[in-house]
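Recap from last week: sequence in, structure out.
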Amino acid sequence: MSNVEREPAELRCGGVAAADPEPELLRPRTVPLGGPRALMVGRTLPNRDRRMVGAWCFADFYGPADIAGQAGMQVPPHPHTGLQTVSWLLEGEVLHRDSLGNAQLIRPGELNLMTAGNGISHSEESPSDHSPILHGAQLWVALPAERRAIDPHFEHHGDLPEVPTPEGHVTVIMGELLGASSPARTYTPLIGAEITVNPGAELRVPVRRDFEHAVLALSDGLVVNGHEVATGEMLYAGLGCAEIAVGPGRALLLGGVPFEEQIVMWWNFVGRSHDEVAEARATWERSRVDEDDAARFGIVRGYDGPPLAAPELPNVALRARGRTRRD
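Predicted structure tokens:
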């Protein structure tokens, strides 16, 4: 998914982690996704004070939105560098097209994972015969410096491991949890899982102490480690937890080894310097208007509309800073 803000702020992420003894409730800000009749999404990462959870650097939550008789999601072709996009649906369908030639419909419980590496472009749209409700999450994972320029690739996983428990069940989207491993390719130690807890129950999930963790609420009434978390909010549980207690409802558990690199995240690019991001933007603008200059980001075929134009860079140099506001 694109960050389609016309004046995107400089997002400063990464940096050396310290122990975080107190949980933090991260409230989303509302962002329009698309044109005049845009789908509204809630963005919890990056947040004002906390930019990342492990390598997870971006989290949008949308819906449930009634899109009956409407176009629904319509995100034109746009570029990415230095990250992985993670698409996860609770209801509805989204059609992904990319410059590698992939066209994949994603449905609830399936994972679309696109690794941008040195550069890729893609579009996302609700198909013409879409369901009336659209509900889901879109997340990004920052690639480590030594892998940020790898060749782009795409994965679709329609049969992810599920772990049933007396209290509910867990779907392992990325990484390993409760003895189950996702087939999705990762480049730093991390976990992404959907947790569903039965009414009146609480599920205690053992987690790695060397990971920091956060829980994104997908339904109302959720309680995480004793804290109420409303739909679309995220509770950052910190570093060093032995378990995460969730219930009742649905949630996304995100975690990973704290990302110690400083990064620059601006628009749809993750880089390490102003010049790196500026070069990616200029290359996209050239390829957007001239298909003969599209070697880096390629061309998305099949989307009915022009690619997104990149916003103007800010009038000050982008700087790589820490993973939290205080770093």
